[in-house]
Amino acid sequence: MDIIILAAGIGSRLGHPFPKPLTVLKTGKSIMLSQLENIASAFPGDHVTVVVGFKKEMIMEAFPDLTFIYNNEFDMTNTSKSLLKALKKVKNSGALWLNGDVVFDARVLDKIKPFINSERSFVCVNKSRVDEEEVKYTIDDDGMIKELSKKVKNGLGEAVGINYISKKDVKTLISRLIECDDNDYFERGIELSIEKDGLKIIPADISEFNCVEVDFKQDLEKANELL
Q1: What is the 3-state composition of the chain as percent helix, strand, coil, each rounded to the nearest 5?
Q2: Average pLDDT over residues 193-221
Q3: CA–CA separation, 157 vs 154, rounded Å?
Q4: Residue 133 pLDDT more than 90?
Q5: In the structure, what pLDDT confidence band is assigned to residue 131 with cuts at 50, 70 and 90?
Q6: Any idea which of 48-62, 70-84, 86-100 has the lowest mean pLDDT?
Q7: Torsions phi, psi of 205, nearest 5?
């Protein structure tokens, strides 16, 4: 399995003069180091690629043994194009990808292993809250993801930034990410794949575990409280 961390963004809402994944938590570890330790524990030996952009050298120096892909248009594009660059490198496997600002309980990865082992595409969701700023979702009659965006009305929960695309679905998602506008989040590519190709995406419920995307200072405070 390929594992991708999206870490190209400027992260201006948090207000740090360095890449957001390098934000240090109260544990003394950065967000990305915490992610990598969780990944290594759950999926030892799987290949990790990081998409970098803003002040890329800082991330590359912090984690010199990883593989990096440079999004040279990080200041003009959003996560749809960063994910596209990474998925184009995937060879004959599914891909698990994470936003580089997600602080999560390691048990989340254990919860999603059955879906990965059965090669079923999914988006991790938290049904315990539905904040206006976050990516929200609805489901169809079969319980699969129907809508997935910040604009969703009456959302059933939030997407938390941990996702998987199966080997059989990778090419479909790539084709739809190509169609996305530069400023689209990758969730738009998933929505297009559902609408145009009938892609089946499971809402993988991880509500029982702590998982926070750190966009604002209050998110960082919340993540540290949960830790």
Answers
A1: 35, 25, 40
A2: 95
A3: 9
A4: no
A5: confident
A6: 86-100
A7: -80, 115
Whose structure tokens read 């079923």? 120
Closest to 61 measured CA to CA, from 28, 100, 10, 22: 22
Tokens coding 77 = 């594009």
3-class secondary structure, 224:
helix
Farthest-apart Cα atoms in the chain, separation: 48
The tokens of 39 are what?
């990944």
- What is the pLDDT at residue 62? 97
Q: Say which residues have a Cβ less than 8 Å from residue 20's Cβ, sequence separation at least 6.
A: 7, 9, 11, 14, 31, 100, 101, 214
* Nearest alpha carbon to residue 121 among 204, 196, 177, 47: 204
